[in-house]
């Protein structure tokens, strides 16, 4: 997805391509984890809610703190072993909202959300996937402090990759929520929609959560039918993207539309219509006469659309 073509060499999507070896076998080994925490090359990402804490001492913003520096930023609610980068241990630390508020006044720090980090290229790209890993799992801990089975307070175990209930003994594992994001295609055209949350000129793929008891293909067909009233047949998987807002996995697909009429579900989307490839190309190139645009390259939607512009309905035959 980063090759040269009509659009030049574009940045890849954000949050995927994590270089960390997760080293899951170490998660239950307290003695080895203690050694890793004290390792001289240990680096820690610090997150509180939606805010990522960055060092702003030099020209480039730096998201990695030493263990001692991280301790100075506030009480760690959770510490997660994220993995190893070429043998250098990486941890994620979650701090509470009050500590985050206190840090906002400091000139040597910058607090910024992870979406803005990706859009602005605010830190070295190598840090963005582990930040997504840290944000997703720290967010899971923040929302799962009590056992859904019996209501008792749960405890972090396995270096942050499980919570155990001391009362009913249930073991709780971090969740990832599957979301289908798709482009319904018919010959040389496809359907894009607009959410009321979008910037005023942006159009994008349709998307929605997979429901229990549903395959990816079934979720794609249901969501397209619900949101724009278009019937789809063949569904082809394209690629996926971790989306840590709060803990989704975007599953990108192209779908073969077999009907034309667009009927909008106004509770979900503001507008939707057919676009042909020439119009989409002008949007990708930021040359559309009405300044219509697609999502930026950090988002998988951009690449799903671009693949169709490049290869047409052939994307359904792979
Ligand atoms: Zn329980």
Could you describe the largest sheet, including whether it forms a barrel? 6 strands, mixed
Structural class: alpha+beta
Low-confidence stretches: none
Kindly, what is the distance between the CA atoms of the first and last residues, rounded to a whole number of angstroms? 16 Å
List bound small molecules: zinc ion
Number of continuous helical runs: 8
Helix proportion of residues, in percent?
Answer: 10-25%
Report the C-alpha radius of gyration, rounded.
22 Å
The averaged pLDDT comes out at 95
Subunit arrangement of the protein:
single chain
H/E series: HEEHEEHEHHEEEEEEHEEEHH
How many individual β-strands? 14
Question: Per the principal axes of the C-alpha atoms, what is the gross shape?
Answer: globular
What is the beta-strand fraction? 25-35%
Would you mind describing this structure in some detail?
- The chain has 318 residues and is α+β, with helices and mostly antiparallel strands.
- It is 25% helix and 28% strand.
- The chain is built from eight helices and 14 strands.
- It has helices spanning 30-38, 67-72, 97-103, 114-120, 128-143, 216-228, 277-284, 300-311; strands at residues 43-48, 51-55, 76-85, 88-95, 109-113, 155-157, 162-164, 171-172, 177-186, 189-194, 206-209, 232-243, 248-257, 271-276.
- Strands 9, 10, 11, 12, 13 and 14 form a six-stranded mixed β-sheet that branches.
- Strand 6 and strand 7 form a beta hairpin.
- Helix 7 (277-284) crosses helix 8 (300-311).
- It is globular, with a radius of gyration of 22 Å.
- 34% of the residues are buried.
- The mean pLDDT is 95.
- Residues 147, 149-150, 152, 165, 167-168, 170 line the site of zinc ion.
């Amino acid at each position: 997805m980063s090759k040269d073509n009509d659009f030049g060499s574009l940045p890849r999507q954000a949050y995927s391509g994590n270089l960390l070896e997760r080293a899951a076998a170490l998660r239950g080994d307290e003695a080895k984890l203690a050694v890793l925490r004290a390792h001289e090359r240990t680096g820690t990402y610090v997150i509180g809610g939606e805010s990522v804490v960055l060092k702003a001492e030099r020209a480039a913003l730096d998201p990695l703190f030493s263990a001692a520096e991280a301790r100075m930023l506030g009480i760690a609610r959770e510490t997660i072993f994220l993995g190893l980068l070429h043998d250098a241990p990486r941890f994620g630390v979650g701090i509470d909202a009050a500590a985050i508020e206190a840090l906002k006044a400091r000139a040597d720090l910058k607090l910024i959300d992870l979406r803005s980090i990706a859009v602005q290229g605010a830190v070295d790209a190598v840090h963005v996937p582990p930040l997504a890993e840290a944000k997703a799992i720290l967010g899971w801990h923040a929302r799962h402090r009590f056992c859904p089975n019996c209501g008792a307070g749960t405890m972090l175990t396995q270096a942050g990759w499980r919570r155990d209930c001391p009362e009913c003994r249930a073991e709780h594992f971090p969740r990832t929520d599957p979301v289908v994001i798709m482009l319904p295609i018919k010959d040389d055209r496809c359907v894009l929609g607009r959410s009321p949350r979008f910037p005023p000129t942006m159009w994008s793929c349709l998307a929605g959560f997979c429901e229990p008891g549903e395959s990816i293909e079934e979720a794609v067909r249901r969501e397209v039918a619900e949101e724009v009233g278009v019937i789809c047949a063949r569904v082809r998987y394209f690629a996926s993207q971790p989306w840590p807002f709060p803990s989704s996995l975007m599953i990108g697909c192209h779908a073969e539309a077999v009907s034309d009429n667009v009927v909008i579900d106004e509770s979900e989307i503001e507008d939707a219509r057919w676009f042909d490839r020439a119009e989409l190309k002008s949007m990708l190139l930021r040359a559309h006469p009405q300044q219509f645009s697609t999502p930026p390259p950090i988002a998988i939607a951009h690449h799903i659309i671009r693949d169709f512009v490049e290869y047409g309905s052939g994307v359904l035959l792979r």
